[in-house]
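> forwarded from #structure-qc
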């Protein structure tokens, strides 16, 4: 059975055909029991064929016969249907038999269900059998011309019915196949467009991150490079024009700028070598006690303990997140705060919970932008934790939450 035929048979289920077959069998039995005179020509043979057809239809219906993938089963069913009805029609009046139209229904059903080619094969034995019975069966007695006319009429009638139903079924199958192909092509196209949109979003995100990274890098390098250039010109002046204190002060400034550039280069190296700045990196969940984590971050940021003060309520001190990333976020924020705040200022870290997030507010010492490379790294790390970093008047606000949250608290 070809794929097209299998699909066609699937659209016209075998159970439906079985019910139609049983209904037609019931109609034929009712017609015979009403005393139709056509069964009187050969009553014994007619009743045997009729009961066989009705019993066959009922057995197929009761057993709930399903469509078989084996071709010989299909051909057996087609053969039984056509031979039984053709024989019954042939001995009950031939072309004038009330059962002859049932044979047309059988041929049409074969054409609809299995296509024009199988219907043509079925006609190859059905038409000769019916024509032979119309011409050769002696009862009822009719002139040879009338028998020939009936034979010719039913040959054309059955052929026309099979061709019409088969062509329509094949055209329907072709339209169904083309529609399926079009739907499959549309699904592939939608998938391609979705992939392109996803790729475009990723590229736009990468480009945005690249621009932000380069902007932060430029912001970090421009002031110290300009200052080093000025200090270099000052040091090239004559020795007599500079006092020892001025020269020492200039060298200290050079050393400070060199230290700052070294810090920036280490942060660049961290961006280049780290795999955990992206959200897809695996996160390790654990309960984190934030006041203790702030103390560890202050030590790593090079701040003395008396420069960092933590303010929190007892119920706001614990967050479930990635300890390593949270520590790195706090280190970056405290480094920036320590660099920007006045030397003797105390950096206050306020911890409180809001909208399902734990917020950390650092004051004072933030300039109100996110141009520094350290803050750029802190923001990317916070985003992987479902949080973020944002400026606020006089300081900085960071929030940490579930990595699946991805929203900003009010």
């Amino acid at each position: 059975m070809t794929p097209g035929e299998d699909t066609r048979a699937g659209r016209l289920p075998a159970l439906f055909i079985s019910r139609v077959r049983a209904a037609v069998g019931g109609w034929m039995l009712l017609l015979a029991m009403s005393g139709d005179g056509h069964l009187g020509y050969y009553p014994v043979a007619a009743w045997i064929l009729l009961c066989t057809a009705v019993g066959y239809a009922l057995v197929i219906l009761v057993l709930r016969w399903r469509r078989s993938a084996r071709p010989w089963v299909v051909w057996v069913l087609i053969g039984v249907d056509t031979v039984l009805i053709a024989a019954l029609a042939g001995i009950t009046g031939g072309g004038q038999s009330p059962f002859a139209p049932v044979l047309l229904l059988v041929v049409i059903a074969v054409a609809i269900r299995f296509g024009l080619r199988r219907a043509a094969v079925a006609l190859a034995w059905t038409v000769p059998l019916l024509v032979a019975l119309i011409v050769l069966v002696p009862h009822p007695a009719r002139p040879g011309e009338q028998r020939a006319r009936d034979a010719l009429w039913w040959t054309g009638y059955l052929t026309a019915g099979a061709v019409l139903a088969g062509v329509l079924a094949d055209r329907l199958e072709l339209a169904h196949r083309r529609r399926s192909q079009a739907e499959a092509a549309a699904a592939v196209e939608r998938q391609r467009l979705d992939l392109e949109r996803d790729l475009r979003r990723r590229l736009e995100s990468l480009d945005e991150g690249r621009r932000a990274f380069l902007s932060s890098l430029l912001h970090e390098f421009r002031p110290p490079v300009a200052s080093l250039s000025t200090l270099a010109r000052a040091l090239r002046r004559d020795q007599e024009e500079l006092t020892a204190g001025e020269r020492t002060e200039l060298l200290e400034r050079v050393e400070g700028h060199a230290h700052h550039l070294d810090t920036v280069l280490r942060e660049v190296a961290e961006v280049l070598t780290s795999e955990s700045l992206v959200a897809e990196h695996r996160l390790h969940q654990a309960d984190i006690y934030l006041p203790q984590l702030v103390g560890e971050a202050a030590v790593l940021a090079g701040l003395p303990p008396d420069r960092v003060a933590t303010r929190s309520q007892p119920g706001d001190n614990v967050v479930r997140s990635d300890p390593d990333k949270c520590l790195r976020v706090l280190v970056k924020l405290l480094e920036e705060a320590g660099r920007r705040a006045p030397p003797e200022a105390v950096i206050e870290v306020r911890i409180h919970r809001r909208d399902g997030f734990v917020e950390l507010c650092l004051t004072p010492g933030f300039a109100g932008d996110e141009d520094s490379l350290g803050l750029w790294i802190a923001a990317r790390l916070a985003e992987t934790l479902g949080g973020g970093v944002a400026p606020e008047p006089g300081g900085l606000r960071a929030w940490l939450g579930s990595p699946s949250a991805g929203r900003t608290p009010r």
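QC bot note: The chain is about 65% helix and 10% strand. The beta strands are 286-289, 308-312, 318-321, 347-354, 357-363, 388-392, 395-400.
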